[in-house]
Amino acid sequence: MRSVYQIQFQSAVILALGVHSALAQDIESVTMKTEVEVRSDMRNRGVSESLLRPGARAAVLVAHESGLTGFAELSSVSTRQYLGGRGSRISLAGGYRFGDPDGWHFGIGLAADLYPGASFDAPHSLDPETFAPTDFRRTNYNSSYAGLEIGWGALETRISTVTSKNFVGASTGGVCGTLAQFSSDPTATFNCFGRGDQTSRGSWLIEANYKFDLGNNLSLTVHAGRQIVRNFPEASYSDYSLSMAKKIARFELSAQWLGAKVRTPALFVVQEGDRLRRIDKPRGVLVATYKF
Fold first, then answer.
1. Per-residue pLDDT at 28
2. Residues 215-223: contacts with CB under 8 Å, at least 24 apart
3. Which has the closest alpha carbon to 162: 143, 148, 140?
């Protein structure tokens, strides 16, 4: 069977809503900031997007004093996870923020993640007599989101929902097809296909972050998140991270510990040659960011 969807999650709307916190102190009429970054592992919500290898990203953040914000990002991803693609993800987002950055503040936003050229073929049903995978269809990974933020000072809570047909390829073919390929439990595969042809529109991503200012340009950020994948409970998972960051002039250097608690490990493996690699296991990550 052809390689199918490997579950990866990205919600650019979270980044769009978070722009305000970084820019609120120096917004005039319009403020634009650019940053480039290299990472030892391109982790997103606890899960590797780069098959445990180094990667890079570049982003532009724009904010108007009215509260309107914009965000654009280009980042590297693994072509073994985003099949047939060009090894990149383009994230676009816009939002509106209001309130007191040091007190209660709120935001709303819309976003889209685009994976140029990336798609996969996977079965959407099983033959009723032989139980062999059948009804192969092509699905892409492109996703769109709408989100809401509520924060108090250094505490940020965000919730976003998937408005596109599928959530980064999480369809019957993506989820059930991956189980058929990698799961050792045939019951899980039968149960998944037994729900019929489903999409994951309406999935939810929830997170909370708290940033401790330790002084001397040093900070510690604690993160906890939950991904609820509609129609595919086996794909839902939680994630966590700790990040210690140090600002030095225009650079920010950070050391992070990230991981995920998944319900179905078979949905978080990638085949690389003869090896199956888990992309959800806890791991330390080093990050270097340069801000223009």
1. 55
2. 217/246, 217/247, 217/248, 218/244, 218/245, 218/246, 218/247, 219/244, 219/245, 220/244, 220/245, 221/245
3. 143
3-state helix, strand, coil in the chain (%, to 5): 15, 55, 35
Residue 260 bridge partners (DSSP):
239
pLDDT band at 10 (very low <50, low <70, confident <90, very high): very low
Which domains can be identified in the chain, with CATH numbers?
12-291 (2.40.160.40)
Do residues 37 and 291 touch, judged by C-beta distance below 8 A? Answer: no
Which tokens in the block code for residue 102? 């040091």
**Chain centroid to CA 146:** 14
Is the pLDDT score of 100 beyond 60? yes
4 with 120: CB under 8 angstroms? yes
What pLDDT was estimated at residue 278?
96
What value does the mean pLDDT take over residues 14-33?
A: 57
Specify whether the CB–CB gap between 192 and 199 falls below 8 A.
no
Asked if residue 22 has pLDDT above 60, the reply is no
Taking the C-alpha atoms of residue 232 and residue 184, their distance in angstroms, rounded to an integer, is 18
Give residue-wise pLDDT tens across range 51-74.
999 999 999 999 999 999 999 999
